[in-house]
Amino acid sequence: MKYTNGFLLRATAALLLASGFLAAQDVQPDNTKMNKGDGNKTAVTADKQKMNANDRKLTQQLRKAVMEDKGLSTYAHNVKIVSENGMVTLRGPVRSEDEKKNIESKAIGITGDSGKVDDQLSVMANK
User: Fold this and answer.
1) Is residue 31 a contact partner of residue 92, using CB atoms and an 8 Å limit?
2) Hey, is 120 helix, strand or coil?
3) What DSSP designation does 122 have?
4) In degrees to the nearest 10, what's the CA dihedral of 99, 101, 68, 30?
5) What's the whole-model pTM score?
6) Cβ proximity of 88 and 111 under 8 Å
7) Which has the closest alpha carbon to 94: 122, 60, 116, 54?
8) What is the DSSP letter of 71?
9) CB of 44 within 8 A of CB of 81?
């Protein structure tokens, strides 16, 4: 009987899964519905990020502050941060109102002005 490499890989994976060595992965966050709004011509998206030094620095500082906060969820670590002419837009889902306030507070601290932060974050219910 001749086996192909694909067959052997599938058989090995099935054996490992059945024996408990390979755990089924949790469902990953799916932001497909949220991202459909990015097709709107007026939506603030990463491709509209200005390439001037000040806007890049704002985005970089805020992304670093968000990523260093290990108390935030994966959703919060993946929010969209877009800077345009000193104005920072925050978009995407977070897990709680506290996370939303936390990220907005970081943005205000970095920009120095709450009027320069457009908080479009949304709180997603835990499943």
Assistant:
1) yes
2) strand
3) E
4) 40
5) 0.64
6) yes
7) 122
8) T
9) no
> Which tokens go with 86?
């000193």
How long is the chain? Answer: 127
- Taking the C-alpha atoms of residue 102 and residue 96, their distance in angstroms, rounded to an integer, is 10
Q: 73-125 pLDDT, tens per residue?
A: 999 999 999 999 999 999 999 999 999 999 999 999 999 999 999 999 999 87
Residue 12: strand, helix, or coil: helix
Out of 3.40.50.300, 3.90.79.10, 1.10.3880.10, 3.30.1340.30, select the CATH number for domain 44-127.
3.30.1340.30
Question: CB-based contacts of 76: which residues, under 8 Å, 6+ apart?
Answer: 66, 69, 94, 95, 99, 102, 103
How far is it, in rounded angstroms, from Cα 45 to Cα 118?
A: 13
Residue 117's nearest CA partner among 125, 108, 109, 126 is 108
- State how far the Cα of 26 lies from the Cα of 46, in Å rounded to an integer: 28
